[in-house]
Amino acid sequence: MTAFYWTIFLLAALCRKTGGQFLDLKNITARDAFLSGTLPDGFLWGTATAAFQIEGGWDSGEKGPSIWDWYSHLPQNVPWGDVATDSYHKYKEDVQMHVNTSLNSYRFSISWPRLFPDGTNTTINQYGVDYYNNLINELQNNGIEPLVTLYHWDLPQKLKERYGGWVNDTLVEMFENYARFCFTTFGDRVKYWTTFNEPWSFVAALGDFNNDPDYTMKYKMAHNVIRAHARAWHTYDDDFRSAQNGSVGIVISSIWGEPADLHNPADRQAATNYMEFFFGWFANPIIGNGDYPDVMKRMVRESRLKQNQTVSPLPEFTEEEKMYNKGTTDFLGINTYTARIISATNETQTCHPDNHNFASACGFMPDLMGVKETVGPGWFYMGSNIFWFAPWNIRGILHFVRERYRYTKPFYLSEVGIGETYKYHSPPNLNDTWRMCFYMTYANEALKAVKLDGVDLRGFYAWTLMDNVEWGSGPDLAFGLYHTNFTHPSRKRTPKRSQGLYGSIARENGFPDNAIHVRMTREWWQWCHMDEAYAPTRHGYVEPTNKPAPCPSVSTAPAAQSLMFTGILGILVVLVAFCSP
Ligand code: BGC
Fold first, then answer.
1. What is the mean pLDDT of the chain?
2. Could you say which of 415, 445, 470, 508 is catalytic?
3. Closest Cα partner for 71 from 165, 140, 135?
4. What are the CA-CA distances from residue 124 to residues 51, 62, 186, 390 (Å)?
5. Are strands 477-478 and 493-495 parallel, antiparallel or unpaired?
6. Helices 265-275 & 393-404, crossing angle to 10 degrees?
7. Are the beta carbons of 428 and 496 closer than 8 angstroms?
8. Rounded CA gap, 429 and 366, in Å?
9. How many angstroms does the Cα of residue 519 sit away from the middle of ligand 1?
10. Is residue 539 very low, low, confident or very high in pLDDT (cuts 50, 70, 90)?
C-alpha cells in the first residue's frame, strides 16, 4: 500500500513538473468570458515606441548611423527612418498624445548612436543628450513615468563595421559603457530601465544583418547579449541603485506555445521545448539557473552531431559566469502578440510548420527537434500572418514563466498590439474597430492574469503610440493608436477611434462595472471574437463604414463565477481521484 501512495505522489510531482506550467485554457467558453474589475493601484498604462521607428533626425546634430540607417539606405530600400514620425522634433506632441490618452507611462528607447556616434564614449553628441533630457523632463512635467529601453535594435553602424556587431566579445564592454553613461546622465529621473528589447528577434530573426545560415554566429551573438545584459544590471546594482533607487529589467518576447493536447505528456514536452528555445534561450540564464536550458544544450549538440559537426556552436558559460548571470533582473518585460499550437513529432525531425498558411518561427530554431507548429482551427490573423488573434496567450505565457522558472518578481506587458496592412498614401483608417476589439480583449486578459491567476503584473504598454516605421515594411504595416500622415512633411498625427477606447481603459484602470467602455465592451464582446472583426486588417485600406461594430444585444458569456466554479470543481475532482483508495 505504501508503494501505491509513493507512486501516486511521484506521479503527482511529475505531473506538476511537466503540466503545472500550462494553464488549462481549452474550455473556450470559460477562456473567452469577459471579466469586470480593475487592475491594482499604481498600474502603469502606456504606449511603447522605438528610436529608429519614430525619431527621424537620422543625421541631426552629430548622430552616427545605426545598422538600420545603413540598411534603409541600401539602393533597394526606402529610407523611411530618416524622418520617421519626426519625434526628434515633435517629442512634446508625443507627450501630449499620452496626456490626451490618459496614460501614466511611456516606454521609449534611446538610440545608442545618437549619444555615442561611433558607439564608444570617445565622442558624445551633446545634441542627443539634450534631446533625451528634454523628453524625460517633458514627461516628468506631465506626470508620465518613463520606462527606458537601452537597446531596441539600432546598433551603431561603426561597431558593426569595426567588430562585426554582437558576435564580438568587445561589445559587452561597449554596452556597459553606454549603459553607465545613461544611468549617470538620466538616472536621477528614470526609475525603470530595460537593457534589451526582444533579443530573440534581433539575434535569431535579424542576426545584425549578417549572413549566418548555420547559426554559429547567432549563438555567439546571443551569448554576448546575455553577458552585456548581466554586466549592465550589475553596473546599476553596484554603482547606482542605492542613490537612484530604480530598477533594471529586460524585455523578452515570445509567441505562446500552447500544447495541442494538454493531457498528452509528449505534446506538453514539445511545447516546453519550443518555449525553451524561444523564451528560455534568454530567460533561463537570467531568471533560471544562470545557464542555457538543458534541452537546448542537448538538442543543439545532437542536431549538429548528425551533421558531423562535433563541436556544439552553443557557447558555454563558465561556472562563474552562471553565478553572475543568475537573478540579473528586477522585473521582466514581456512582449507578446500571438500564439501557436505545438504538438510532438519524432525527435529525428526538426521543428516544422504544419502547413504554410502562417508564418512559422521554426525556421529560426534550426536545432529544435520533435516539434510541429501550427495555428488553431478558427483562429484569425491580423495584418500579417505572423500575428494571429489569441488574447489568452497573455495568461498562458505569464503563468508559464512564473511556474517554470519559479519567477516571483513583477511583470510588465511591455508590448501588446495589432497592425493592419496599409498603404501610407491612402486615406487613414480612423474607424479602427478591429483595434478597439483587440484592446478590449487583450487588456481584459491582463486583468484575468491578475485576478484569476494571481500574477504580479504591473503595467500594460500598447504597441504603439502612432503609425511608425515598421522596420523593413516601412509605414505599410500600421500599429498606431494615432494615424501618422507619411505624405506630409510634418508627419501630422490624428487620433483613431481606438485611442479613445484605450484611453478609457487606462483612465478607469481596467474594466470597472460602471465605466462606459465596459458597457460597450460587453456589447461588442461576441463580435470581437469573430474573424470578421479583424478582416479589414488584412485587406489594406477599406472605406470606413462609420457604423459601430454590428453587435446587437449579445448575451455575455458566463463570467468569473463560472471560471471559479470550474476551478473549484476541478480541484475537487483531483482531490477525490488522489484520495480514493
Ligand atoms: C518589436 C517592434 C515591432 C513590433 C511589431 C515587436 O517585436 O519590438 O519594434 O514594431 O514587434 O512588429
1. 91
2. 415
3. 165
4. 18, 8, 14, 44
5. unpaired
6. 90
7. yes
8. 39
9. 31
10. confident
Q: Is 197 in the pocket of ligand 1 (CB under 6 A)?
A: yes
| pLDDT at residue 429, as a whole number | 86
- For residue range 410-425, list pLDDT tens digits in order: 999 999 999 999 899 9
Q: For residue 259, what are the β-bridge partners? A: 342
Q: Which atom of ligand 1 is nearest to the CA of 50?
A: 9
pLDDT tens column, 199-211:
999 999 999 999 8
| Residue to probe by mutation, ligand 1, list 334, 413, 463, 481, most atoms within 8 Å of CB | 463
In this structure, the chain runs to a length of 581
In angstroms, what CA-CA distances link 260 with 80, 345, 373, 377, 566?
A: 41, 12, 9, 11, 21
Which residue among 415, 470, 484, 537 has the greatest number of ligand 1 atoms within 8 angstroms of its CB, and so is best to mutate? 415
Ligand 1 touching residue 470 (CB < 6 A):
yes
415 flagged as catalytic? yes
Cα dihedral sign for 368, 361, 459, 565? negative
- Ligand 1 centroid, distance to 10 Cα (angstroms): 43
Return left, alpha or beta for 119; rule: phi > 0 is left, psi -120 to 50 is alpha, else beta. Answer: left
Number of the ligand 1 atom closest to the C-alpha atom of 201 = 7
Query: Which one-letter amino acid corresponds to residue 283?
Result: A
Other C-beta atoms closer than 10 Å to the C-beta of 581 total 5
Centre of ligand 1 to C-alpha 485, Å, is 20
Catalytic residue among 198, 258, 321, 420: 198
Q: Are 492 and 97 in contact (CB under 8 A)?
A: no
Burial (CB count within 10 angstroms: exposed 0-12, middle 13-18, buried 19+), residue 434: buried
Cα of 479 to ligand 1 centre, how many Å? Answer: 9
From residue 492, alpha-carbon distances to 20, 467, 468, 562 in Å are: 49, 11, 12, 47
Total-model pTM? 0.91
Contact assessment for residue 360 and residue 199, using Cβ atoms and an 8 Å cutoff:
no
Q: What angle do CA 478, 481, 487 make, to 5 degrees?
A: 50
What is the pLDDT at residue 548? 52
